[in-house]
Fold these 2 entries.
Entry 1:
Amino acid sequence: MNKIKKEHKIAIIYHSVHHKNTEKIAVAMADVLDAKLLTASEAKKHDLKDFELIGFGSGIYEADFHKTILEVIEINNLKDKPVFIFSTSGVKQTNIMKNKFNRNIISTLSRKQAKILGSFSCRGWDSAGPLVRLIGGVNKGRPNKRDLQRAREFAQEIQKRA
Ligand SMILES: Cc1cc2nc3c(=O)[nH]c(=O)nc-3n(C[C@H](O)[C@H](O)[C@H](O)COP(=O)(O)O)c2cc1C
């Protein structure tokens, strides 16, 4: 695996393909944390061991993070590594739903013995699926200014916890 030049101490790794909703959140958090932004496909080519803090973000597809994010986690040694997770989804993540969407990533990160510092979620514009398409999509304009502000505040909080 390639080594990334150590110009950043923090990495944010994301997968965002539907409307780039998650990318907007990733960019807002990276701005606060001065983090290196990598797509999950880019991250797969690199060794992440030199990063002191890593965020993993994804749109929710079929009730889960995208598998490339899970693959990045699998191939890296994350023992005791401070990490955080974030996602955007069509459906609001209530406490019950949050556990559902995050179930795989949390169990994978726990098995890898990473130190999970927090998780963030917000709704994202969703025009997938025949029913949703029929009504022109849901959550148009999300993430909005308020979501991005929440993302920035979450990143500040993570910085304090790291
Ligand atoms: C193939 C596909 C499957 C999806 N499955 C779900 C789902 O199970 N639950 C949900 O709440 N949203 C679902 N969505 C909506 C996305 O989670 C939402 O639009 C998200 O913000 C997309 O993020 P992105 O633009 O960063 O890819 C799905 C979208 C797509 C394209």
Entry 2:
Amino acid sequence: MTDLFKKARKFTDPQTYKQMGLYPYFVPFSATIGPRTMIRGKETIMLGSNNYMGLTSHPEMLKAAKDAIDNFGTGCTGSRLLNGTLDLHNELEAGLSKFLGYEDTIAFTTGYQVNVGIVEALTTKKDYVISDELNHASIIDGIRLSKANRVIYKHNDPQDLERVLSELPKNAGKLLITEGVFSIEGDLNPLKEICKIAHDYDTKVMIDDAHGTGVLGDHGEGTPNHFGLGKDDVDILSGTFSKSFASIGGFAAASEEVINYIKHTARSFLFSASMPPASCASVIKATELIQKGDHMRDNLRKLLKRYRSGLVSLGFNTVPSESAIVPIIVGELEKNFRLWRGLLDNGVYTNPYMMPAVPVGHELLRTSIIATHSEKDVDDALEIFAKVGRELEIIP
Ligand SMILES: Cc1ncc(COP(=O)(O)O)c(C=O)c1O
């Protein structure tokens, strides 16, 4: 008889790294996750969050969330379709439609559920889903769940996209799904070329802008706006509230008829309880603060320039981008964990990435700057990077 749990008994990597003092996951924070936070009683510079606009501790966000609890309680206890829609959900969706320039918007309980629900709802086994090879796991899972044929093109490569599209049946239904800002290394999608090629081949475009919304665009509208694109170029613009919006939940904005279809057919929307009141209210407030936040984005850009050029002049291997994500490529698992541990011991939190998130040999620390960091936070962090990087002989 096959013992299903045998694999669990043999899964000892976490213990091995714990014994070496190098296990980097499930680190508990004991304070608000802002520009600095507390880890095991020690103040730590936070370079590992997606709180790009720094809104997790904004006083107006806190007030909005507390008022929502007073007025609506702690949870909705039901699906949006049935007993889980509050005035707040409708207000949130209307505000986002206006902000993003789309006819309608739907709010899911997580960004993961957006991708898992929409691809499956929109496609059948006769259709094709075209996906960048480095798309986020939630997109991959959405495609796995759908019955459509999956076609992968090379990362951010318009020529390869054109090649794969030209080989597909002309009359088939086709959905291109990819990201505005790629989640691990923060590189931007060349959206102008990608959207044009897709539409030349009668392919609908869905862009997951989880890491672009709030950060890029004239007033934080995201990556399509950054490139001068809008609803005629990106048919479905989706994202999450777990990053710049400093809450939890996800959204998709599109035409009224597409949203109407999704809200009656996407299983991850229908069969899961709705976003709780405090989250809805904080997202409504975040939508307002993001639009008014040009000065925050200016500060973020300034800090990112300082941080990136500091890392490069120290000799770290990173990737240029206009996003708030700054990867530090180490290229070896144990060395990556040692760098993570050294930084943490000296007061800087980062996120180490390994297989399957990145290929073996491309291990990296994913770091990010937020709009409420100060120049001192950046300079203090760089000083610690210099010290630990030299000790580990990662930099000269
Ligand atoms: C590109 C992308 N899409 C979707 C998600 C999922 O979002 P959520 O945290 O809201 O489930 C993430 C989160 O890591 C992401 O990076």
